[in-house]
Specification:
Layout: H1 14-23, E1 67-71, H2 83-91, E2 94-97, H3 100-109, E3 116-118, H4 124-136, E4 140-144, H5 157-165, E5 170-173, H6 178-186, E6 193-198, H7 203-213, E7 219-224, H8 229-240, E8 245-250, E9 258-263, H9 264-274, E10 280-284, H10 297-309, H11 314-325, H12 330-343
Parallel strand pairs: 1-4, 1-5, 2-3, 2-4, 6-7
Antiparallel strand pairs: 7-10, 8-9, 8-10
Helix pairs in contact: 4-5, 7-8, 8-9, 10-11, 10-12, 11-12
Length: 344
Amino acid sequence: MQALRPRNLTMLPQRRLLTHHHCNDASEVPENIADEAPPEQSEDIRGPRQGRDVLAAIRQPAALDPGLYIVATPIGNLEDVTLRALRVLRDADCILAEDTRHSRKLLSYFSISTQLYSFHEHNEHVKEAQVLERLAQGASIALISDAGMPAVSDPGAKLIAAAVHARHSVIPVPGPSAVLASLVASGLPTESFQFVGFLPPKASQRQKRLSQLAGVEATLIFYAPPHSLAAILDDMAATLGGSRRCVVAREMTKLHEEFSRGSLEGVASEMRLRGCKGEVTVVVEGSSGSEALAPSDAQIEAQLRELISDGVPASHAAKLAAKQLGVPRSSLYETAVRIKGETG
């Protein structure tokens, strides 16, 4: 076997120049990306200072097989990127990124100059047909998100489904995952888990979704925005049970990585007091079967109708029913008002 020789990635092969030419065709990709100096590396991201030297361990550039490559990228620490991911990003014809400015930090750090195009939730319906056309022409296209695996609570799922439907090759390039990292570090059962993603931002809808998960015995994993974390944990405690164990994983793999462990009730109280910043994943113990199941919508409505038919005002009916059924009052108020309007 021929020994691998260290090389400087800035000495790009002729193929890179050709692939950049057809990826830059304005008729195919209407968006122009201006050349600009790469942003400085964030101070809270730990990684090797000589990123370009890592590529010395990767084989010489070669054409990738045609297809859509789903590439995982670091969730914070640049050292977590895989050698295979770097090779695919280097050798692909072009890269689709959720945020080009953010992803350019990673590519610049490792001296990867593959053409970068934006692909996010606001333009994916427009770009999808163009990407499928390029795949039909035999292109190799890498898809990345800001962090972790694309299409997991990130753009890309629709494009991947369309590529599969069109019988194009879809190649996963696995790597960092906030879901799995938080699960294995949580200390909670790992043999069965359910990834929920982000809960609805509206409290009543969030509580309804949580009530649907109350009986799930698998460990539950959520993404959560830091500014509403305390409210989310309060709803979890009220709906799932305040004694359930949970872990709030914050800024994983970064300089200020932190795991807050305890009961839902306890951690919710802690977050109310000190607040929270950064990327957050919440891992919650599954149902033990001993907790009382959350009442169904039909049970809630029946209870409210009974109280309102007895002349209780809608607001007070919601308060009484919430106490009787063990659910947050805010999740019942809209239903109570609707019933009151129907009954006069």
